[in-house]
Amino acid sequence: KLTSLALQPVITPELLQGRVHLKCAYSRPSWKLSLQYMVVWSRLSTPGKKEQIQRDTTLQSFSYVEMNGVNLKLGHTVFCTVTAFTRDTPEQQSLPEESKGFYAGIKFLPESLQIAEDGKEHVLTILSTVPIACPGHDDSCKITLQLSTEDLGKNSQLLGPPNIALSECQVDLLQAPCSGSSCAAATLTVTAVTDFAQDGNRISRIRAEPVGRRDLLWRAYTPKDVKVTVRDLPTGNCYSFTDPHIITFDGWRYDNYKIGTFLLCQSVSRAFEVHVRQWDCGGHRSATACNCGVAAR
C-alpha cells in the first residue's frame, strides 16, 4: 500500500521562454514502480483559506505553473500539494504532501524597523523572490522601484518634518541568477530625522512602487509597506542669555562679558556652526555685554 512516501515538494521560481513560472519539484521513491503524481497548486486567498488554481497529473517529478498576473499574481503565497498513485490501481493513493508556502513578489528585510533619533543609518534590503524578465529588446532587465515615506498618526501633515529619511528615492532590481529566496536585490539606508521636538514615538511607513513596467505582472503590483517606528530621544540644548550667561550642552556654566563676535558652537562632523555678536550694553558704571546678533550655518 502507498502511505507516506517522503515526496517533500519544494517550490522554486524559474524563467521559461521569458515568462515567470513556479516549479514544484518532489522526490521519487527509490523503488521502481510506475507511479503517477497529482499536483494541486493553490494560493492563500485569506488567512487560513486556500484557493485551488491548477491541478496536474504527471509522470514527471515536477510540475509548473505560470505567474500570468490573472489567477496567480505577485503578492500571492503559493503552495503545491503532491499525491502519488499507481496507474494500475489509481484508488490507492499516498498521503498528500504540501510544500512550504512560497511568497512571490518583493520582500523587505527586515520587514519592520525600530530606530531612534540618534543619526544612525539602518540598512534595508529589498529583494524579489521571482526572476526579473526582459519584456522586450528595448527594455533593460530590471525593475525600478519608486520609494516614498509617509508619517502615520493624527494630523501627520501638522507634525513638522518627516520622521525618516531614505538614502535613495529609486532603486533598481537587476536580473540575476536566483539564489536562496532572492532573484534580485538592492539596499538602501534609513535614518530617523532628528527634529529637536519632544513629540513622542512616531510611526512611518516606506512604500515601494514599480515604475515604467508595461507587463501585466508588475504593472498592477504594489509591495507591502515597511513599518518604521521612530523612538524619540531628548534633544541637547545650549544657552546664551542676558549679559551673557552661557550654559553648554553638557551643563557647564560660565559668563562672557567681552565685546565682539564669537564662535558659540561648532560641529566637528558636519557643516553646522553658530556665531554670536555681543555689544556693550552696561553703560559707564559696569562693563556688560549683551547678545545683539546671531548667525547660524
TrEMBL record:
Domain VWFD: 236-297
Molecular function terms, GO-annotated: signaling receptor binding
Keywords: Disulfide bond, Signal
Pfam families to which the protein is assigned, alphabetical: Ig_VWDE
Domain of life, per lineage: Eukaryota
Keyword Signal: yes
GO annotations of cellular component type: cell surface; extracellular region
Entry keyword Lipoprotein: no
PROSITE patterns named in the record: VWFD
PANTHER family per UniProt: EGF-LIKE-DOMAIN, MULTIPLE 7, 8 (PTHR14949), VON WILLEBRAND FACTOR D AND EGF DOMAIN-CONTAINING PROTEIN (PTHR14949:SF52)
Protein's recorded name: VWDE protein
Organism, scientific name: Fregetta grallaria (White-bellied storm-petrel)
Lineage of origin: Eukaryota, Metazoa, Chordata, Craniata, Vertebrata
